[in-house]
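Retry 2 of 3 after timeout on previous attempt. Resubmitting structure tokens to design endpoint.
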């Protein structure tokens, strides 16, 4: 299967849509303070999916919210939520003119892009001067990967298959309830993401670590959540990284 076909053909189940809505409600809490401070009038979400996060963002300051995604079925759902959504392959560019948006953001998307140079260069291009770029992505150097890698466990977030993300996970397989791959291609750590943003002329304004709980047995989940919250205070060890940058 070609990678582009993987994304285009992937259709969301009702349970997945409900999970995405819940995730968006959680994730927007980290964006809200910046949205209120920036008060953007025109926003673009890269990889908007079915529009749950864009919808939550729109509810905060009521801007014009645009979205791009490669999946036609997801675009239809996003439009129903009031998002000005259109289909696009972000590996090839962003189909808008220069200097259009006050804010461009992406959540859990850049790791799915093979041409991250185009992704960032184009994001910079469509931003107005003084506009903001917010990117959130998993951190390959997060605390758990640092613990398991010396034991020969394949790093979490990397995937060797388009069908099964547990390959190479060793003893962790029994704790991984979801086996379907999500299509991760390039996974960053903090220093590599900063370097990429600087390469394309972004100015780093703020860096935050974001905790994120895996689905796991209740007893283990409790201790994992505590550790993840503690390590999130140091972004280079956090499960997810959020960087706010400026043009």
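Retry 2 succeeded. Sequence:
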């Amino acid at each position: 299967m070609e990678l582009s076909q993987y994304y285009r053909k992937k259709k969301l189940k009702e349970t997945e849509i409900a999970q995405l809505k819940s995730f968006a409600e959680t994730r927007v809490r980290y964006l809200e303070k910046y949205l209120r401070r920036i008060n953007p009038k025109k926003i673009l979400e890269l990889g908007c999916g079915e529009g749950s996060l864009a919808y939550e963002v729109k509810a905060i300051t009521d801007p014009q919210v645009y979205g791009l995604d490669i999946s036609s079925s997801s675009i239809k759902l996003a439009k129903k939520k009031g998002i000005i959504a259109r289909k696009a392959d972000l590996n090839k560019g962003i189909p808008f003119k220069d200097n259009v948006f006050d804010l461009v953001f992406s959540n859990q998307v850049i790791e799915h892009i093979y041409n991250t140079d185009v992704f960032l260069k184009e994001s910079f291009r469509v931003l107005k001067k003084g506009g903001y770029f917010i990117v959130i992505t998993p951190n390959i150097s997060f605390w758990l990967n640092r613990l398991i890698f010396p034991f020969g466990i394949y790093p979490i977030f990397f995937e060797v298959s388009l069908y099964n993300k547990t390959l190479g996970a060793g003893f962790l397989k029994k704790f991984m309830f979801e086996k379907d791959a999500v299509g991760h291609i390039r996974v960053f750590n903090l220093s590599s993401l900063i370097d990429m943003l600087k390469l394309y002329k972004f100015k780093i304004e703020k860096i935050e670590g974001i905790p994120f709980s895996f689905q796991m047995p209740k007893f283990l989940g409790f201790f994992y959540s505590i550790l993840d919250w503690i390590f999130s205070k140091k972004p280079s060890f956090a499960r997810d990284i959020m960087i706010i940058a400026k043009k």
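Attempt log closed. Strands lie at 42-46, 64-69, 84-87, 101-107, 127-138, 203-210, 240-246.
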